[in-house]
TrEMBL record:
Record domain OLD protein-like TOPRIM: where: 99-161
Pfam families xref list: OLD-like_TOPRIM
Gene3D superfamilies: P-loop containing nucleotide triphosphate hydrolases
Name of the protein in its database record: OLD protein-like TOPRIM domain-containing protein
Source species of the chain: Streptomyces pyxinicus
Highest taxon in the source lineage: Bacteria
Length: 299
């Protein structure tokens, strides 16, 4: 076991990073374990948030706070907020923040952390990604544009049909003029929306369990075929919600609630659609390439 006590003391940031690489090399050896005591955000930022243990005191007794591999996104955010506050920062300060990702709304904002953890094996915060719900595809673009103008690393994830329905904003030339690189403009859908990346078989399974058909007593069940037929509609998610609302008395009243029920059926990496694996890898790449952006004299 190798123990380091404040190894970053009196070192500049470059040498702190060199120390961190040395520690990481030591920890990967099969015969060794490493413990580092530090107050340095620079070192904390270099490891998986699941590997951080926060030591504090309560009523004169030592208190240990840590995350489990199954910790929810809310638990991760609470842990980070409490740790930031104890280190003397405002609760709003997010450790591990390397880039911002704007998403369309509450559906993606609620689902992405769980899907990311299952697909990638670690919390989205450990990748340095801060998600923001932006109230629509145009809101995501405005959010990303604002942060880009202030030299922050940012990208947006919107439904692929944004390029069809809002061509004025989501076209390559216009985005390029606003300073966006292709890699920062992430589109999701198979072919058009977040909801349609999930298979008809999965949607049918969820619906038969959660929202049985009105004629279920006569043997009527939801089928993948009738759900897949909706992919030809201009807006799959609206048609899907209408199908369940018209055919079941138990269907959720709001379209945004559909994916929340579906999340219960995502348990292992292979359950996460390949389209999302690809999106998450792009987001990770953006975070890994993030760095300081100097302001030019002309800006």
């Amino acid at each position: 076991m190798i123990a380091y006590d404040e190894p970053d003391t009196h070192l500049d940031y470059e040498h702190q990073r060199r120390i961190m690489k040395m520690i990481e090399t030591s920890s990967r050896a099969s015969h060794s374990s490493v413990i580092v005591a530090t107050h340095s955000l620079n070192l904390i930022d270099g490891v998986d948030i699941q590997d951080v243990v926060h030591l504090g005191s309560s009523d004169g007794q030592a208190e240990i706070q840590s995350l489990t591999a199954q910790g929810t996104d809310k638990e991760v955010r609470r842990f980070m907020s409490n740790m930031a506050a104890s280190l003397g920062f405002r609760n709003s300060v997010l450790l591990h923040e390397k880039c911002f990702i704007g998403v369309e709304g509450p559906t993606e904002y609620a689902a992405f952390p769980r899907l990311f953890r299952i697909a990638m094996g670690y919390p989205i915060q450990s990748a340095g990604i801060a998600l923001w719900s932006c109230g629509g595809n145009d809101g995501s673009l405005k959010f990303a544009k604002f942060l880009k103008e202030h030299k922050r690393t940012v990208a947006f994830i919107v439904d692929r049909d944004s390029k069809r329905d809002k061509q004025k904003f989501f076209n390559d030339d216009r985005l390029s003029i606003n300073g966006f690189q292709p890699a920062e403009c992430i589109y999701l859908g198979n072919p058009n929306e977040f909801e349609d990346i999930f298979s008809g078989e999965l949607w049918a399974r969820v619906a038969n369990d959660k929202w049985p058909h009105k004629e279920a007593t006569q043997g009527r069940v939801w089928t993948a075929q009738e759900i897949d037929a909706l992919r030809r509609e201009p807006k799959f998610s609206h048609s899907l919600h209408a199908l369940f609302r018209n055919g079941s008395e138990d269907a959720p009243p709001k379209k945004e609630q559909l994916v929340g029920f579906l999340m219960e059926y995502i348990e292992k990496p292979s359950d996460v659609p390949e389209a999302l694996h690809s999106v998450f890898k792009k987001a990770i790449s953006i975070a890994e390439d993030a760095g300081p952006h100097p302001w030019d004299e002309d800006d």
